[in-house]
Write the structure tokens for this entry.
Amino acid sequence: DQLSLIGDPNLPLQKTVAYELGYEHSLLDAYLLRVTGYYKDISNQYDLTDYYSANGKVRYSKATSNSYEDIRGFEATIEKRAGRWFSGFANYTYQVSTSGFFGIGSYFENPAEQRNFLRDSPPTQSKPVARPFFRSNLVFRSPRDFGPDMGGINPLADWIASFLVSWQSGLHFTWTNTVSIPGLSNNVQWKDYYNVNLRLSRNVNFKPLRLTLFADISNLFNIKYWGYGDGFVDGEDYNEYMRSLRLPKDIADEFAYVPVNGYGDDRPGDSRPDDVAYEPLELNPEGNAEIERRNQKRIDDKAYIDNPNQTYLQFLNPRDIFIGLKVSFDF
């Protein structure tokens, strides 16, 4: 067996210095508004440093603590903790982070390989564009004494519907049609993420027996969200998709790019519907009215978008419904 990892019990412990400043305010004696700003500085983060022999037969990693990260942001939350018919909260969070490392991430016994590594992989800071997100849990309930009494059972009483709503801004990434543009990064943005989950439940009491019927529905509205990078066979498949999009002119102009299907308002993450055949736009230099009509139909249907080849991996969040029964005893 070849040695692959060496630990180091003498590594300094990871250190986190955190600051938080918040303000809370009661509204109408029913709601609580909370606004918080925070900052976290993390040093001596655990990482691995790689070592390579000149003949390539020996390769191992050693535990080090050369990484760092700082996180800062703010969040606003409004909350209603109790209520006869309604309770819940809504939260908006904006957070940015910076991370990087000190020293050298890989050591090569061969001096030429070491020079190449230092040239191609200099120490850099990672500064991803912030992706703010929103979360909300809205709980609606009917009181236990609500509705008509039918033989000791109130069919409209004690129902609970809990909605979990979430949104996150889309991922920023770099695409320049395989052309290297110094200084240009994170120039395009994937579509935003949306989702709604529902838990519906009903309590029925037969003392000392208590029954809870429930249904958990994830992705309630069956929103087809396509995660970044899913479904592509390789880099060329990915680039063919990106080239088929009708990107906005201001984005394309940043790297002197003219979309093959013309300018538009597409965002990465848009896709051609399953029931629409792929049809790229026709060239129409003379402004032929019939070609223009056909092209407009393709634009309306998004038929020009070249979907990834592995479409079965494109949408991985179908609606799921789980139904169950919970039984408990009150002694």
